[in-house]
Amino acid sequence: MDDRREPPAVPSAPAVRVSDRERDRTLGVLAAALAEGRLDAHEHGMRAGRALEARTAGELAALTDDLPAPAPSRAERDRKDLREWLAEWRYWLGGAVIMSGIWGADCARRGELTSYWPVTPLAVWAAVLIAFAVWPRDGEDGDRPQGLSDK
User: Fold this and answer.
1) What mean pLDDT is predicted for residues 76-83?
2) Boundaries of each DUF1707 domain copy (predicted)?
3) Which of 59, 89, 119, 135 could cross-link to 54 by cystine, CB 3.0-4.6 Å?
4) Which of 34, 50, 70 is the last residue of a domain?
């Protein structure tokens, strides 16, 4: 007789308890689905009640699995755009450090200060970043500068 036993099945993810913020996020998804007509008022009420009583992430996920994620709000898109724009400035700063280091090493090799050539590429790069920030947007989604269109 074989004494080996199958180990008990281990769930792929433990049941993680949810916070009020996660319940509120789920209620927001359900409200958006109601507003879009994806849920009727009765089903929305049932799911909202279960969301308020949910204790684990799996229970909340089951309530929204058949619904698309809501589109990000204008404020969320603006925050994302700002983060990306600030990241571009960090890249600019890194480029400035690298180009200044190359210029400094070249000056040290020659034994004299030469004209600061990095000013030209850095100025052009900064102008592009500033223009991107102030360029007017066309349409509600704000993804395309005015005057550019699909042809």
Assistant:
1) 89
2) 16-68
3) 59
4) 70
State which residues form the domain around 30.
Answer: 1-70
Q: Residue 121 is encoded by which pair of tokens? A: 């590429």
Quick one: 89 and 125 in the same domain? yes
138-147 burial: b if 16+ Cβ within 10 Å, else e: eeeeeeeeee
Give the separation between CA 44 and CA 10, rounded to whole angstroms: 33
Q: What is the pLDDT of residues 19-70, one digit of tens each?
A: 999 999 999 899 989 998 999 999 999 999 999 999 998 898 899 988 887 7
0.90 surpassed by pTM: no
Q: Residue range 68-86: average pLDDT?
A: 86
Does some domain include residue 150? no
